């Protein structure tokens, strides 16, 4: 994953998830980023995560790999070449404290291994993508299921927004937000990320 440059994440991009955390549904895309040290490949082995900083939540998200910079008139398929399923791990108690203080979310979402990702697969195009749900199993039980067709801000809107405000280019990746159903992870939990019926990656959470 050495080739990955910037990690951008969209917050509150699914209505029901914004509601479950008591957040307002945003009217413009809401983005944050993670350091590249946050990346961890879901390759079947254990991934170390913080176990002593309050509740740790999974947020399952589709992740898209940027192949080239956006130019006016381009479509999503011109900009994205690959996709994966990822988890935007969040220290929920830390985040609540940061929100109260009006501080940035880095401590809650930017810690090591907070950006778990499956291996990348070819991007089949946006319409094809909407035909398949992504999901997360915790200890073989489905805990989250989502579809990119349900986002508040579609991919092209997010790409244009990121391009305008931060710059977006080859090697950047985009976490696109989580559907409803986020929840806690305990030490030893086995997490499995699926695209339709296909397991794209799994790992064991090792809380330290
Ligand atoms: Zn998220």
Bound molecules: zinc ion
User: Which descriptor suits the 3D outline?
Assistant: globular
Mean residue pLDDT: 96
Helix content: 10-25%
| Cα-to-Cα separation, first versus last residue | 24 Å
Strand content: 35-45%
Structure overview:
The protein has 208 residues and is α+β, with helices and mostly antiparallel strands. It has one domain (7-207): Fumarylacetoacetate hydrolase, domain 2 (Alpha-Beta Complex). Helix content is 19%, strand content 35%. It is built from 6 helices and 16 strands. Strands 1, 2, 3, 6, 7, 9, 10 and 13 form an 8-stranded mixed β-sheet that branches. It has a 5-stranded mixed β-sheet with strand order 4-16-15-11-12, with no helix packed on it. A 3-stranded antiparallel β-sheet has the order 8-5-14. A hairpin with a 2-residue loop joins strand 11 and strand 12 (141-146). It starts with 6 loop residues before the first strand and ends with a strand. The mean pLDDT is 96. Zinc ion is lined by residues 9, 59, 61, 88, 177-178. Zinc ion binds at residues 9, 59, 61, 88, 177-178.
Write a compact overview of the structure shown:
With 208 residues, the protein is an alpha+beta fold. Helices cover 19% and strands 35% of the residues. Strand 15 (190-195) and strand 16 form a beta hairpin.
